[in-house]
Amino acid sequence: MPMHYERVPLRHIQEQIARGEIVEMMGGEEPEIPQEPAAPEGEQVRYPWQQAVHAALLELNQQKLRGKIAAAEKAVADRIQALAQAADNAAERRALADALSSLRVLKRNPSA
């Protein structure tokens, strides 16, 4: 029988842990308190525009996803335009290209 998992706001889980409710459900084992992810696993935010990209990549609510993708695309496009006259920044330019590629995939297949 498949299991059903419900998306619960992190704040709600943290409150349950603080009240000791989750500890009771886990048979007395103290759970680790989850934290909001700042970036996908293994990635760090090196550039300010990456926060918008990571927010889109981490969004599970399909109703909010389009807006997050649009905000991320705008942040990336604005930064590309700002770098148009700069000769350096090869690493950031690669990161921008990777971000646009990820956003294109996300737009094509938002439920993946």
Structure, described:
- This protein is mainly α and 112 residues long.
- It is built from 5 helices and no strands.
- The protein is elongated and about 55 Å long.
Return the string of H and E elements. HHHHH
Number of discrete domains: 2
Question: What can be said about the biggest beta sheet?
Answer: none
Mean pLDDT metric: 77
* E-strand count: 0
Q: Unreliable runs, pLDDT <50, ≥5 residues? A: 1-5, 33-37
Share of β-strand residues: under 5%
Tertiary shape:
elongated
Main structural class: mainly alpha
Number of helices: 5
User: What is Rg?
Assistant: 18 Å
Span of the ends, CA to CA: 23 Å
- Percent helix, as a range, is 55-70%
Map the helices and strands.
Blueprint: H1 10-19, H2 21-25, H3 50-58, H4 62-82, H5 90-108
Helix pairs in contact: 3-4, 3-5, 4-5
Characteristic key phrases:
disordered N terminus, elongated, mainly alpha, about 55% helix, 5 helices, 2 domains, about 110 residues
Structure summary:
The protein has about 110 residues and is mainly alpha-helical. It has helices at about 10-20, 20-25, 50-60, 60-80, 90-110.
